[in-house]
Design goal:
With 184 residues, this protein is mainly alpha-helical. The protein has helices spanning 2-39, 58-74, 82-105, 112-125, 130-139, 144-168, 173-181; strands at residues 47-51, 54-57. The chain has a two-stranded antiparallel ribbon with strand order 1-2.
């Protein structure tokens, strides 16, 4: 019986030592794998501002900064320090986001017909066909679908601003009568 106990005890000791070695090896492998994951981590995107129920992502800020850089460079305008420019662009994005939300709440919608008409007028003002306009957009690094959505966004912003101005401008009957009775 004592011999059987010794064999069982020896077996348990061997299993515990060999098992801890396996654990140590697997723990080391896990740590190595975790280290590789951390080293190869890529930031996908992050939130830079939250406005009401919406957010502004880093990718949106980066895209707008790139557009501003291109625009200022094409006009040979000196760039402000990057931190200042980034702050100004983020503030502009926040303001636009608030106005877009106001437009949505106010029921402002730009249908495809109105958008297509605006795009055709932009191309015409630049003395281009629609196809030439698309090609110029692509040459500037902007897809036609991105440009369409940016134009739609600008149209919504313009309508919101028009509404804000119209609400502030109030002309009384007396002012109309005074204007009509003036000699000029």
């Amino acid at each position: 019986m004592k011999g059987l106990k010794r064999i069982a005890l020896a077996s348990l000791c061997l299993l515990s030592f060999s098992g801890s070695g396996v654990y140590a090896q697997s723990a080391g492998a896990v740590q190595t794998a975790q280290k590789r994951i951390v080293e190869s981590r890529v930031d996908l995107d992050r939130i830079v501002a939250k406005i009401d129920q919406d957010v502004i992502m880093q990718s949106e800020l980066d895209a707008r900064l790139e557009a501003v850089h291109r625009q200022l460079a094409s006009r040979n305008i000196a760039l402000p320090p990057e931190e200042v420019l980034q702050k100004q662009v983020l503030e502009q994005l926040i303001l636009e986001n608030i106005q877009i939300q106001m437009g949505k709440r106010g029921g402002i919608r730009i249908d495809d017909w109105a958008l297509n008409d605006a795009i055709a007028r932009i191309a015409q003002r630049n003395q281009m066909t629609l196809e030439e306009f698309k090609q110029n957009l692509e040459a500037d690094g902007l897809s036609f679908s991105q440009a369409r959505e940016e134009i739609r966004r600008e149209m919504i912003l313009n309508r919101v601003r028009q509404r804000q101005v119209a609400q502030r401008v109030q002309v009384s009957e007396q002012e109309i009568d005074n204007f009509l009775s003036s000699p000029e």
